[in-house]
Amino acid sequence: MRAASGETWRDYTRHAFVEGLSDGSLPNAAFLHYLRQDYVFLTHFSRAWALAVVKAETHDEMLVASSTVNGLIHEEMMLHVGVCAEAGISHDALAATPERPENLAYTRYVLEAGYSGDFLTLLAALAPCVMGYAEIGLRLKQAAHSDTYQQWIDTYAGDQYQSYCRDVGAMIDSAVTRRLGEGYDQLPIWQSLCKTFRTATELEVKFWDMGLTP
Ligand SMILES: Cc1ncc(CO)c(N)n1
Question: Where in this chain does the record put each Thiaminase-2/PQQC domain (predicted)?
């Protein structure tokens, strides 16, 4: 799916916002604005992963989907609450953040994939988020020339997040072959799943664009 998304994957994982996190040149106001939007994003994104629990077929799929829901709500969202609290933004203020249209477009796209699509369509819409941030986190950990955004980088490069990413990847692989068989990439449905993945990746690019325009 990543290979089929072409340039878009690079636009997402090498975005100017990401490079600003890496070298510390990202203005703090842009970072906090992004974090506030991302908190709202994660609220809806957790709901979309909860739909994956509902649409799963096996206990293994349910285990991975429910762990992801748990990680999003108990860990990733709490990181945002903590960083914002240090910057003087209360939990109430964070929850009251007005949602930007770019944010709304992305999360509702993913939720809609879950409401009207099957399990694989939902996973194709969810995958760029988890996979992309894990990839960005690892690269920045190796390349970062500044410690300004170290906590953010460490979160996504850390063992916990990387292990979520591996579990989700393995679960997607087995969910695809379970439903479509080994020759999955010869089927028309595969093209449609790749298109969903690519659209979600484009919406990640728009999310970073939004981050740069507080
Ligand atoms: C927009 C966006 N994509 C991916 C992640 C990773 O969970 C995130 N926190 N926010």
Answer: 7-212
How many distinct structural domains can be found in the chain?
1
Matching residue, tokens 């995958």? 127
ipTM: 0.98
Pocket test for ligand 1, best of 17, 38, 108 (most atoms within 8 A of CB): 38
Within a domain: 161: yes
CA of 42 to the centre of ligand 1 (A): 7
pLDDT tens readout for residues 124-138? 999 999 999 999 999
pLDDT digits (tens, 9 = 90+) for 188-214: 999 999 999 999 999 999 999 999 999
Distance of CA 205 to the CA centre of its chain: 11
H or E element: which one contains 60?
helix 59-71
CATH number of the structural domain spanning residue 71: 1.20.910.10
* pTM for the structure as a whole: 0.97
